[in-house]
Amino acid sequence: MKNRDESSLINRAKAGDSTAYSQLVKLYQQQILFLIFDLTGNYQDAKDLAQDTFIRAFAKLSQFRESAGFSTWLFRIAVNLTMDFHRKRQKATIPLDELAPDAANIQYFADPARAIEQQELKTQVLKMVDRLPFQQRTVIVLKFYHGKSYPEIAQLLACSESTIRNHHARALEKLRKYAMRLQGE
Amino acid sequence: MKKCKFAKYLVDYTRGEMPEADARTLEIHLQTCTSCATAVSELRTVASILQSRERIPPPVELLATYSQSLARLFTAPRPKPPVSERIEASLRSFFSLRIRLAMGMALLFIGIGIGYFLTHSPQPGVFIEPPTVTIPWLSAESRSISEFITGSEIILLSLSNLESPEKVNPAEIRLYQQQSEHLVRQAAQIRDWAVLLNDADLNILIIDLEKLLLEIANIQQNDLTQKIIEINAATNKLRIFLKVAHLQTELQRLPTPI
Predict the structure, then answer these.
(1) CA dist list (Å): B19 to B22, B25, B161
(2) In contact, B170 and B222? CB cutoff 8 Å
(3) Nearest C-alpha in A relative to B66
(4) A84-102 pLDDT per residue, tens
(5) Which of A83, B34, B56, B86 is the most buried (most CB within 10 A)?
(6) Cβ-Cβ contacts under 8 Å for B122 (sequence gap 6 or more)
(7) How many other β-carbons are positioned within 10 Å of the β-carbon of residue A2?
(8) In sequence order, what E strands does A48-127 have?
(9) Chain A residues in contact with B75 (beta carbon < 8 A)
(10) Model ipTM?
(11) Residues 6 or more apart from B214 whose CB is under 8 A from it?
(12) Rounded distance between C-alpha atoms, residue A7 and residue A2, angstroms
């Protein structure tokens, strides 16, 4: 039922009905904002990029083919815009192997009497997701935070499924090593 | 320490993506290999941390402005009111307090000007600099948008007019790069203003210009010819939009009625 309604909205929007498009925007505006926030870690940037996503999607609506699924197509635009934004910013991605825990935490973990609590570990690991290379981070965000399957992520990022699995495995391994180091210190 | 030969299978095992027979073999190995058993437990911890992560909610104000600006962008244009109502509205705005005040001020300045001219007749042949008139209620935002578009256009047209890109002076290219970098830095603000003008086409145009400017900012001497061909093609596509955008931003400069 939802798909049929969505499909009808898409067809109307393609025919130039901006009310139909505004309904589609309402359906996805939160998901897109959250996706971009998960990738950038900043709501202000996420808001700007999410707006750009809907503008870009509106301009390219005629190119949308229903086979892909509207949300996948929209997610792809959002990820591509975020990737461009990330490139522009040239945010340095520090290899996790070279990354030391925060100074405050060094002090904290150096005290053997105070073991790392699960909550601290969680906070640190989640912070580290933001430091992963963009492709790996995107896979982690889509897989764990947005519940996408490997085939969906592959379609979304225009990569093969095996590439996605590799990114996923590498990211998990990096995070594991980081968590291990935190626990060891 | 030598790495266990089973280590490379641990992620697949944790993800439950191993054939059953292989998984059984690995499980037997895990009973004797502490490092692999620890790694599996750590991978599971990391996966559970990621799965249980809670997102920081967005600030309420940001969420509100986000929804409002999207609604403004994509709401259907309201039907135009009948001609009689539009004429009435224009007359009302024409005789609004702001306009009346401005007209009064203008008359006062003209009077002072005429008085000055009559009392200080210039010597023949002396050029009198015309006074610069600034209208205080012109939209600074639309002026900035217009300047951004014009600035971008100048760079794009200058590049497309280069006769032989391979012989071009690197200093000239550097200048275009600097100008482009300068405009790219302004682009985010310009986009925000374009959103306020409630014009999706203008917004797309600014995004496209921003992309082109970014390309120019990162242009290299050795791929100059190819890049210029690409930029020319993109500029030709944009040209009609550039004209429309100029017109629109000029219209936005008109005083808004109170």
Answers:
(1) 5, 10, 63
(2) no
(3) A47
(4) 888 877 654 544 444 444 4
(5) A83
(6) B128
(7) 7
(8) none
(9) 18-19, 22
(10) 0.77
(11) A88, B180, B184
(12) 8
